[in-house]
Every structure is written in structure tokens, then in C-alpha cells.
Design brief:
By secondary structure, this protein is an alpha+beta fold. Helix content is about 25%, strand content about 35%. Helix 2 runs antiparallel to helix 3.
Amino acid sequence: MPDQILISDLLLRTIIGINEEEREKKQDVLINISMQVDLKAAGHSDQIKDAVNYRTITKEIIDLVENSRFQLVETMAHEVARICLSDERVECAEVRIEKPGALRFARSVGVSVARRREDYQQ
């Protein structure tokens, strides 16, 4: 099993959706991320320079999501994965985004995407 960095239950507020009422006020989104990274160098050295700085990545994600106006959760997930892959040591990013309470009778609705760097090359 590959090494992973996990960011769990990042709860943010944003404009997201296609309906008029969804475009007027911010809604909660719940984000979970798994990044495949070789953690051996950081494990041996105990130095941040050898590690993926998940705090920096999380701050970029917060900035993106809270200031976005995406219509689709799919687009948001795709762009969050792009941020994760901005560190060349991240081999793959899996992003799950849910909209709690988006459907009556369902706790949440969401999407899950897995992306590699080549998915963003033209």
C-alpha cells in the first residue's frame, strides 16, 4: 500500500450549485483528501524540506473553495486535486467533496475523483 497524506473532514462554506437559490448564499461542503506520496525521505530525516507541506496545500484549498462560485461539485473536486498535485512529490490525489443536506432524505451528496499529474497536461 502506498504512503498517504490524509486531510479529513475539511468543512468549508462556498457558493456551489446550478439552482438560483444555491447561487445566492453559501453552503457547507465537506472535503476529504488522500494524496499518494513517498514519505520515506521525510520519515528518515525528520525535516519539513523532505515532506509535502499539507498546511500550505490546505490553505490553498480553503482559498480556492471559499472564494469560488463553481456550479458543479465535479469541477471543484477537479480543481482541488490540481492544487494537491502542485507539489511534484504528490503522485496521485483522491478528492471527495460532499454537500450535506443537498437532497431530502440523504445525509449528503457528493463526488469522488482520483487524478494524476498527466490528467492536467494539455
